[in-house]
Design brief:
16 strands; about 300 residues; alpha+beta; 2 domains; Thrombin, subunit H; 6-stranded antiparallel β-barrel; globular
């Protein structure tokens, strides 16, 4: 009898531990120590990002500019404890970002005051990656269910790249824009997904550090026959590389000697669009934090069903 009771108690403990582990962003698991050192946690509102250059962070345009705010690099806890803290002093949002429609061109760069020593994520430039039906990893501190709360620990979940045309037939998926600039990923049976608060975080080829997407928008979280939309990184390689040259205090050699920014670091640059559509930063600084949606709009966007 005592042996039976002991076995029952052990079984109950295992069930409880398994249940606690399976409740995450939605349907994911806690990120192991040492994984994703390039993940950047953005505070108030909660968003994610990735370190793509020592002083440049890649995130979603619909997340606020974060100029004047501190971000945490390599964060594994929602409070940022144990992570590397850096101040954001500049931002560059895509000039064609559609803030009032389907959020196309949902991509933004942030400039840090000082360079980080963390490892950088690898950016995908191949338009054929990720392949249809391949697995991708997404992570963040977002809600653990559609009506739940933010996760205190960084979570990761693996989902499947879906056919873009199939995604267009899903209920309420009128948020889709262009298959060349967006990725549709999720599980048709539901149960696994990014959610509110994961916006801006990286989408990686499963089991690698190759970033293929940025968490953008979705209808609810982890619903059946509904997938999330991610900004396709390879479609914005020119925007990203030019942005690094213009924003960084330590631009790569390929940028040339005139790449160092001439604007004051406490101000965000204004943006113009060249004939090709490639954004550039004007040499004259402006006092506006960012030519995009307000912080109030972002707070509304973060916690509604459409935005992540």
């Amino acid at each position: 009898m005592q042996l039976l009771v002991a076995f029952s108690l052990i079984s109950l403990i295992i069930q409880l531990v398994s249940a606690s582990v399976s409740t995450s962003v939605v349907g994911g698991t806690p990120v192991p120590a040492g994984s994703f050192p390039y993940y950047v946690h953005l505070f108030n509102p909660t968003c994610g990002g990735s370190l793509i250059h020592p002083d440049i962070v890649l995130t979603a345009a619909h997340c606020t500019s974060f100029v004047g705010r501190t971000v945490s690099i390599g964060a594994k806890r929602l409070d940022g404890n144990g992570a590397e803290s850096k101040l954001v002093i500049g931002t560059l949002v895509h000039p064609a970002f559609n803030a009032t429609g389907n959020e196309e061109n949902d991509i933004r760069l942030l400039r840090l005051q000082n360079p980080s020593s963390a490892a950088l994520v690898e950016l995908n430039t191949n338009s054929l990656i990720p392949a249809l039906d391949s697995k991708v990893d997404v992570m963040g501190f977002g809600k653990t269910s559609e009506t739940g709360v933010l996760s205190f620990t960084l979570q990761q979940v693996q989902v499947t790249v879906q056919d873009y045309e199939v995604c267009q037939t899903m209920p309420n998926m009128n948020i889709l824009g262009d298959r060349n600039t967006q990725i549709c990923a999720g599980e048709l049976v539901g149960g696994k997904d990014s959610c509110d608060g994961d916006s801006g975080g990286p989408l990686l080829v499963a089991g690698t550090n190759l970033q293929v997407g940025i968490v953008s928008v979705g209808i609810g979280c982890a619903r059946v026959n509904t997938s999330a939309i991610y900004t396709k990184v390879s479609a914005y390689d020119e925007f990203i590389q030019n942005g690094i040259c213009e924003l960084s205090s330590f631009p790569p050699a390929r940028c040339g000697p005139s790449a160092a920014p001439s604007w004051q670091p406490s101000l965000a640059p204004s943006i113009t669009s060249m004939p090709s559509g490639t954004p550039s930063i004007s040499s004259e600084p402006t006092v506006s934090a960012s030519p995009t949606i307000s912080d109030d709009d972002e707070e509304r966007c973060l916690f509604r069903c459409l935005c992540r």
